[in-house]
Amino acid sequence: MAALIKWKNHHIEDVEVNLLLNALNERYGYDFSGYARASLKRRLLGLMHYFDVGHLSQLIPIVLYDEEIAQTVINSISVPTSEFFRDPGVWYYFRTTILPQLASFPRINIWQAGCGYGQEAYSLAILLHETGLLKRSRIFSSDINPLFLDNAQRGCWPVRYKQQWSDNYAQAGGSGDFADFFIEKNNDIAIRDEFKQPIEFIQHNLVVDDVFKEMQLVICRNVLLYFGNTLQEHVVDLLARSLERGGYLLLGRGENIVDLPEKHPQLELLDSSLQLYRKLIGVS
Ligand SMILES: C[S@@+](CC[C@H](N)C(=O)[O-])C[C@H]1O[C@@H](n2cnc3c(N)ncnc32)[C@H](O)[C@@H]1O
């Protein structure tokens, strides 16, 4: 039975998913109905295990009346996983090829959508700093989840990630000491204030909110993979409309959006392994 997913003693039916998503939307204004069902169900199964309920529908009255549990459910659906210089090859290409081209703009406006805990926005700030472009750059970093945005704004992460992120930085072409970008205290690394200055963290929902106008660069990595085809199409259109002509769009590596070139002819594919696009000159 396709509509039924089983895991140990737990099972999920489509009707329960719909009812839970309706509850989250009606009560808290989060519309997850266009998200890809298979991965959504996997995360909901994890939540059933966590809350030890045999049926997903048991969570519905709980999320309606318990905001803390509802937030746990929302956090689990929105997945903030990230890293500094995640997919270092992409950042290397950015440093060596894209940023030199952006350097000709007097102001560089960047929209980074789906920022999680902020690692990607600050990676960008570090790169702009190292290429001498930070002072004339503005990064609008957005996410659906205000809790993630608070964390991103704080700019603090457990020190145990430092080595892995430092390796990413080096593979991305960084030649400095990664530790210099942080202050280390109480088992955390906190990003230095100078990298916070050009970033504005903004709550923005890709499902319902509008464009950011006239961006030279839009980055939306590892977000679209959680969306179903129709929502992906809507969001790629939103991202493309946010770009200035000639501006760049970077999606996540491996996020091969179905029929993107056919459905979005205003975008030219520059590199399929990087999922890097450019908005054509002569379109709006
Ligand atoms: C896996 S993280 C990606 C973080 C970062 N872009 C990266 O690639 O490392 C996905 C982020 O997308 C955000 N997100 C999910 N749905 C969203 C929506 N409808 N609008 C805006 N952000 C959304 C989540 O809250 C989460 O922070």
Chart the SSEs and their pairings.
Blueprint: E1 4-7, E2 10-13, H1 14-28, H2 37-51, H3 59-65, H4 67-78, H5 88-102, E3 108-113, H6 119-130, E4 137-143, H7 146-154, E5 156-158, H8 162-171, E6 182-185, E7 188-191, H9 193-196, E8 199-203, E9 215-220, H10 229-242, E10 243-251, H11 260-263, E11 267-271, E12 276-279
Parallel strand pairs: 3-4, 3-9, 4-8, 9-10
Antiparallel strand pairs: 1-2, 5-7, 6-7, 10-12, 11-12
Helix pairs in contact: 1-3, 3-4
The chain binds S-adenosylmethionine.
S-adenosylmethionine binds next to loops.
Report on this structure.
The chain folds into two domains: 4-78, Chemotaxis Receptor Methyltransferase Cher, domain 1 (Orthogonal Bundle); 88-279, 3-Layer(aba) Sandwich (Rossmann fold). It has helices spanning 14-28, 37-51, 59-65, 67-78, 88-102, 119-130, 146-154, 162-171, 193-196, 229-242, 260-263; strands spanning 4-7, 10-13, 108-113, 137-143, 156-158, 182-185, 188-191, 199-203, 215-220, 243-251, 267-271, 276-279. The model has no long low-confidence stretch (mean pLDDT 94). α3 crosses α4. It is 41% helix and 21% strand. The chain contains eleven helices and twelve strands. It is an alpha/beta fold and 284 residues long. The protein binds S-adenosylmethionine. Residues 78-82, 86, 114, 116, 120, 143-145, 148, 205-207, 221-223, 252 line the site of S-adenosylmethionine.
Task: Provide keyphrases for this structure.
alpha/beta; 2 domains; three-stranded antiparallel sheet; binds S-adenosylmethionine; Chemotaxis Receptor Methyltransferase Cher, domain 1; Rossmann fold; seven-stranded mixed sheet; single chain
